[in-house]
Amino acid sequence: MDKISTIFLGISLVIVMLGMGLSLTLNDFKRIFVKPKAVLLGLANQIFILPIVGFILASLFSLKPEIAIGIMILAACPGGTTSNLICHLAKGDTALSVSLTAISSLITIVTIPFIINFSLEYFLEQGQIIELPVVKTIVQILGVTIIPVTIGMVIKKYNNAYAEKMEKPVRKASAIVMLIIILGVCFKEKNNLIESFKAAGLVAITLNLLTLFIGYYSAKLLKLSKKSAISIAIESGVQNGTLAITIAILILENNTYAVAPAIYSLLMFFTGGIVVYLGTRKKA
Questions:
Q1: CA angle in degrees (0–180, nearest 5) for 160-40-220
Q2: pTM of the full predicted structure?
Q3: Residue closest to 35 by CA, chosen among 213, 218, 232, 234
């Protein structure tokens, strides 16, 4: 990827995370003490179950190493602003969704490097293996995620009217830049696009649907409300594709690792639409 594209990708993720920050308050992080069962279940699904499911699927499907690693990068990432929007439209517990996104974003800064290093060692052949420097990776992810989120939260705290005014246009801008990034990856791989869809499409949609299912029914098993179950399902099954693509291209410097997250992000909008339909139909 050329330097201009790399800079654009970094700026795009900053915009997405800034938009998230504009919708957050400290109460979103305190919700773990208010709704501990719902928050802890959502985090368990996000931090532990999702990477395990991703690894099982990446191992069972006959995948190229680059696709398998892309799936694991995606599974290591937290939810994003898209999950909050889908949750809102599906009549889930939006406050719970936002809290899970915020808390998981903090935790995965530490877990992402370890999951990715494990994936690189497992799926690449000897001689191809590269090791991700843990501390450097944490700092890089911190710079493009938590810092802009914090700036957004500070703006909201000290100028709430401006934050509310900017939240909607920044959210729209986030969706636009995410779409541009996905299309950019697809264009970059245009010669192999059909083959990439064949290679990554089935495992990506399976990961998405399976984690949505696990999230929803694990919440029902613990007798949580339907709104909470919808939120946990969405947070378990809708990942931050922009962050996954950024890690693949900027940190690992390998465009092919970004193919699976890009295809997942495209498919995610269709399954998200189904979740919204089911949520609003049941609500009605």
A1: 105
A2: 0.82
A3: 232
